Amino acid sequence: MPERKKIIIIGGGITGLSAAWEAQQLGLSYSLIEKDDRLGGKVHTKIVNLPGGKGIIDGGPESFITRKPEAWDLACELGLRDKMVDPGAETRHMFILDGGKPVAVPLAPIAFAKSPLMSLRGKMRMLTEPFQPAKKDDLDESLADFVTRRLGREALDKFIGPILGGIYNTNPDTQSILVSSPIMREMEADYGGLFKAVIGRMVATRKNKKNGEEKRPRFGAFAYGLQELADELVNQLTGDLRLRAEITRVAKNGGNYQITLADGETLSAEALIFATPANVTANILNDIAKKSAAKLATIRHENIGTVTLIYKAEDAVTPVRIHGLMIPRRENRAIDAITFTSLKMPTRSPETYSMIRVFFGGSRPEIVEMSDADLLNTVQSELKELIGISAEPVEIVPFRWPQSFPQADVGHLDLVTEIENLLPTGVYLAGSSYRGIGVPDCIQQGRLAAKQAQAYLN
Questions:
Q1: What φ, ψ does residue 204 adopt, rounded to 5°?
Q2: Each residue's pLDDT tens digit, 238-285
Q3: How would DSSP label each residue in 73-138?
Q4: What burial letters (b/e) apply to 235-255, b meaning 16+ CB within 10 Å?
Q5: Residue 114's CB: how many other CB atoms inside 10 A?
Q6: Which of 65, 126, 122, 81 is nearest to 438 (CA)?
Q7: What CA–CA distance (Å, rounded) separates 176 from 407?
Q8: Element of type H or E holding 340
């Protein structure tokens, strides 16, 4: 007889681990199946020994936003409150590549007025934002349509688009605003516009401080990388966690679901939670939910990767202090963004070394499939041309995720709802392919799926 659990969770990234944690809190028996040899998914930290200290390198996310409380709250539940650190503002010393040259992102009013990033006409159009009418319905729209409607096309092309498009590794003309940046639509709905919302939220924040609410930094991180969160989850999970376990078949057997693994073992459960990317879920689900699987397969997933280059500090000096450089696709470069990790988060490396993280795969997906040597040559060429760094790095640490970065086109949330309505009873979806790609989004979806499974089982 196959071993029987209440829930089987498929996928051991941060979503699957969060689902398992919630199931454990609810008193449900569970098995978690991961085909890789480690848990945590894209929450993956590598630590490199260097003379004088350690280089702490996150391959995927290195911090999380606290406005969405799920990651912060989970860390506190796990007893990690005192281990969280403030990584500082993500917007300090940020640049955008424009015409092949890095241009500072103008955040202060005077800097905005003097910035060459936008024309006078474009700046004046942005200043009319408070007078633009608010959207009257809740229908989805592209990131490009929203920004153009409220701030003008030049703001999209030169300012907002490169930043948000870079964060989400996508095309603003097709990206759903309700997935990528729903807060901007919330600000418009609540206050009638973005500028008014900024003022209104500042007032609300001051009131909350007076009421004694806990003051949190805007972003949270861990001194030894975000994998601290995933590792502590694994340490405190007491259920059945399986690595290197590949699923060959999913079947319905009476009131239970039966999963067959590549080694021939079978597991049985009353409910399934798929915490895998939609393209992976589609293949596994096909035998028991063909219609859902077909629609899941339509959610595009692109290549993405990062590579961290470690330099001697004197070899990575730039004319101006740069924490990050966003590279719009219109620039036709081989890489998508550059982050000076050692400047943003100085504790991540000894003072005598600099760490630069480069993002790739968005503009040229084929780079993800390059060898380490070819990747290094490509990245070095870009760094030399864009920011003047030509020295050989001491070490490189690459991460690659082929066909695993979801693209949420306009109407994506409606598509996800349609897919969920077609699923067999007792089957749930969670993760970055569905209702948000950030760490708090994935945690929230994993925990909600466990609660939904409990409700079904009851």
A1: -65, -40
A2: 999 999 999 999 999 888 999 999 999 999 999 999 999 999 999 999
A3: HHHHHTT-GGGEE----TTTTEEEEETTEEEE---SHHHHHH-SSS-HHHHHHHHTGGGSPPPSS-
A4: eebebbbbeebebeebeeeee
A5: 11
A6: 65
A7: 9
A8: strand 337-340
